[in-house]
Amino acid sequence: xxxxxxxxxxxxxxxxxxxxxxxxxxxxxxxxxxxxxxxxxxxxxxxxxxxxxxxxxxxxxxxxxxxxxxxxxxxxxxxxxxxxxxxxxxxxxxxxxxxxxxxxxxxxxxxxxxxxxxxxxxxxxxxxxxxxxxxxxxxxxxxxxxxxxxxxxxxxxxxxxxxxxxxxxxxxxxxxxxxxxxxxxxxxxxxxxxxxxxxxxxxxxxxxxxxxxxxxxxxxxxxxxxxxxxxxxxxxxxxxxxxxxxxxxxxxxxxxxxxxxxxxxxxxxxxxxxxxxxxxxxxxxxxxxxxxxxxxxxxxxxxxxxxxxxxxxxxxxxxxxxxxxxxxxxxxxxxxxxxxxxxxxxxxxxxxxxxxxxxxxxxxxxxxxxxxxxxxxxxxxxxxxxxxxxxxxxxxxxxxxxxxxxxxxxxxxxxxxxxxxxxxxxxxxxxxxxxxxxxxxxxxxxxxxxxxxxxxxxxxxxxxxxxxxxxxxxxxxxxxxxxxxxxxxxxxxxxxxxxxxxxxxxxxxxxxxxxxxxxxxxxxxxxxxxxxxxxxxxxxxxxxxxxxxxxxxxxxxxxxxxxxxxxx
Length: 568
Prior knowledge:
- This protein is an alpha+beta fold.
- The strands form eight sheets. The protein has a six-stranded mixed β-sheet, sandwiched between helices.
- It is rod-shaped and about 180 Å long.
């Protein structure tokens, strides 16, 4: 507790000097606090990447309220307690459904601990706040903090926001603040915050020193008789991907702010030591944002000496006194390099034209390649295909691959392609924004005619020719006459009919097939040992025989019989 004395008349000049000195000191302290606030803001940025950059699903508020008598003005302090009560009531009315609120009072350690689920139990909570009375004689801050956090368990999905309201210094000789901070570092969750507010007095230097390494803390002092308005702002998303600033130096991104406890403005600043090391500057506009969706524009300047690569930066988000922001730092992921270039390189030489018969399949294998910046996954799928042709990539409708992977394009012809007309193939490659994809070498596809389609006409003509030949042979080989001699019948075939040995004396007799209008066959050869007599005339070679006319045969000058030739 603070005690204020009043100067006597004899010490008035000295008192005026002390007042002037005190005013100067207060200004210096205010300036130092401003600098410390800026340093704290930068520190939050510097540790942002070490903090889990996610957004909590829910909030839990724990208020530690000093009930020492000085809170109501005993000892000359301002009566700040009614303002604390009003702020606790105002803030509770703004909380969303299902919010857990714990109110822990303390003087010589915790005196009461009540939990409420708001807004369902808002009336009970408000009545409890109104019933509080500051009658304590001790201010055991460190002990209260220690006992409170020892009962907490970390929850990665819940943000536990711990608020301490006091107007005095800790006067517990047995518990140090370091006893609390050591446990708090082990017990706190990834979204937990500590808000250490001193009312009417400056935050002790040893408190600032002890809390500074913790991160996600605020140690603030309120002017006498005042209390800052409590607000909690959540920022989404926790990570912004700015893309490749070599290709787009001024990307725009959206940042959503949700605020509990009342409207407030948040201050933005970019901390980018990796860029600043090379003289480059990353800035954001606007520098202040409010609840809702905010459109931010990031600008990279002085990047002439910035090496190609990927970088990390931090977007610091800070509210006014009494405001908590989760997360207090948004991770910025960015790149600065030429465009990533991808290529699908054939694993073996490709033909200009790929011939697929109906029902036939073929595969084409490629390797994913690219420049040094082609590191992300790409999606490959068949493009527009001609009717009757189906395709898969790595056995599916599409495939997600990375540089070095194999892409197998499997083609199948269902038998509906136009004959011998080249059909184009296409592969669609989807890469990250700004990336370039080289044209994919692909053959055209044709469906060649089948063997019958290609040679069917010639085969038909050949068959007809063979048939004609066979018909001719049949026609020429069929009997055209019958020669009767010595009681035997001999069929005459072919263009030239030669009688066999079974014909006896006429063996070797040769007759030429007569024409349609001829009187009969013509003699082509007569055995030397016989003579042929027709009506008293000896027949010679080239003479014609009459149909059905008897021809006498003499062998060695003696009659041997006669023969006739009849038409069939």
